[in-house]
Design brief:
This protein is an alpha+beta fold and 176 residues long. The protein contains eight helices and seven strands.
């Protein structure tokens, strides 16, 4: 059982790292440099976001919210998403480009599966906090990993270092 739990933890960690690493595509494609130089165009940014979404299974949507208020999106559209994340903007900017994960019960996909939000502030060579890149990631990656654990009568939880519950099979806990 312990080996299975370690394996599940490693599997989820590898997937989360892969999502975080893929956020660098906005740098490699030149989008961040173009935002910094104010030469960005909607077509190239949305093409890069398309690549971010479709190259990573589980990424339902990618949003790029620029400080000017411009919003670029690829994948599923969640109407209230940008407003929902506004209270976290300063926290995201304060991390200076480090990826942060958020849980949400406000964004539901088909079958009411929950989603996670990966957020990263974008920094150019000369200017910081040009905007924020968001991924909306399906909980399916975690559900699939926990499916390997043969404990049908038990509650399953995934928590971060601060004790925040990121995943649970208990409906009443997920709603908090």
């Amino acid at each position: 059982m312990e080996d299975t739990m370690i394996s599940i933890g490693n599997q989820v960690s590898i997937m989360l790292d892969a999502y975080e690493n893929s956020t660098m595509n906005v740098y490699y494609s030149g989008c961040v440099g173009n935002l910094e130089n104010e030469t960005a165009d909607r077509e190239s940014i949305e093409a890069t976001l398309n690549t971010c979404c479709y190259a990573n299974s589980g990424v339902k949507s990618a949003y790029l919210v620029v400080n000017s208020g411009e919003v670029y999106c690829s994948g599923a559209q969640f109407g209230n998403f940008v407003d929902m994340m506004k209270p976290f903007e300063q926290e995201i900017y304060d991390k200076k480009g480090k990826c942060l994960w958020y849980t949400t019960t406000e964004l539901y996909g088909r079958g009411y599966s929950r989603n996670y939000v990966l957020a990263r502030a974008l920094n150019g060579e000369e200017k910081a906090n040009l905007g924020i890149l968001y991924y909306i990631v399906s909980e399916q990656m975690i559900t699939n990993a926990f499916a390997r654990l043969q404990m049908d009568d038990c509650l399953k939880f995934m928590v971060d270092e601060e004790g925040t519950i990121l995943y649970s099979t208990a409906d009443e806990v997920q709603e908090k």
